[in-house]
Amino acid sequence: ALDNSVLGFEALVRWIKSTNEVIEPRKFLDILYETIRQPKYMALKTKMRHELSNKLKEYPNQFISYNLKLEQVAFKNAGNKVHAEILKSCCQPSRKIILELSEKAMTDRINKKVIIDELMVLKGFGYSIALDDFGIESSNLQRLRDFPIDIVKIDQSFIKDLGLDVKADNLLASLQKLIAELGIKIIVEGVETELQKEILLNLGLTIHQGFLYSRPVNAENLPDMFHRLGRNHSPI
Q1: CB under 8 Å to 155, separation ≥6 — which residues?
Q2: 6-10, 65-69, 97-101, 140-144: which range is least confident on average?
Q3: CA distance linking residue 28 with residue 21, whole number of Å
Q4: DSSP assignment letter at 235
Q5: Which residues pair with 75 in a beta bridge?
Q6: pLDDT tens for each residue of 138-177
Q7: In the chain, what's the furthest Cα-to-Cα distance?
Q8: Residue 55 backbone phi and psi in degrees, to 5
């Protein structure tokens, strides 16, 4: 945020092999999703979320965001099912939770009405809905009007040339104005340089996520991250 505070955490999955090699999600997520469908491993996702929620008890004022696959909200009663799963895993029912849907998964094959209805159910339970990866592949501004979106996460492809290409600066400024006029909050992803940070702040884009602030860390290492950012270890 503008004062360098930590507003929340995004839950990420990493596979750490016995050799300490860290495998990124894109290399194993499809296998993981198939695995947790098997009865033997169906509780794994809930267990991981519960462990994370427990580790974050010392930071009750920060939100947690979870990524959802589109298929998880693409059928009737999906909202109630997602809510029930999160209730099982959340140690702090009062914590703010954001559910992120990747725009990469938005296609013409989905039943838009069903998804809108189920997202409204989730909003009724108090969740905020974020549209992730905005700006890549087949971005569709109409989705910002039709879907009950609270937050847009602008993909790093929109900011990689900030300060280097006036078209990139103007495009982001126009996008910021459009989204703000719709009453939707903006998080900018992939912030890696001080120049990007400065331009974003001048545009009024004050909520950032990226390596400039921190690479992904284990929950146990959060005190060190707060220290690096010049924040107290206690919750903000």
Answers
A1: 133, 134, 135, 136, 189, 190
A2: 140-144
A3: 14
A4: -
A5: none
A6: 556 788 888 999 999 999 988 999 999 999 999 999 999 9
A7: 54
A8: -70, -25
Cα dihedral 170/171/173/177 (nearest 10): 140
Q: Which residue has the tokens 């690479």?
A: 215
DSSP E strands: which ranges in 90-210? 97-102, 128-134, 151-154, 185-189, 208-209
Reduced to 3 DSSP states, what percent helix, strand and coil does the chain have, rounded to the nearest 5? 40, 15, 40
Query: Could you read off the pLDDT of 3-31 as tens digits, one per residue?
Result: 678 999 998 876 677 787 777 666 666 77
**Burial class of 188 by CB neighbour count within 10 A (0 to 12, 13 to 18, 19+):** buried
- E-assigned strand segments in the chain: 8-10, 15-16, 22-23, 63-68, 97-102, 128-134, 151-154, 185-189, 208-209
Token code pair at residue 14: 């990493």
Q: Which two tokens stand for residue 37?
A: 């469908």
Q: Cα–Cα distance between 193 and 225 in angstroms, integer?
A: 18
Measure the CA–CA gap between 70 and 107, rounded to whole angstroms. Answer: 10
The one-letter code for the residue type at 62 is: Q
Q: Which of 118, 121, 143 is nearest to 131 (CA)?
A: 143
CA dihedral 166, 159, 1, 9 (to 10 degrees): 170
CB neighbours of residue 82 within 10 Å:
21
Residue with tokens 């090699």: 21
Q: What is the pLDDT of residue 234?
A: 42
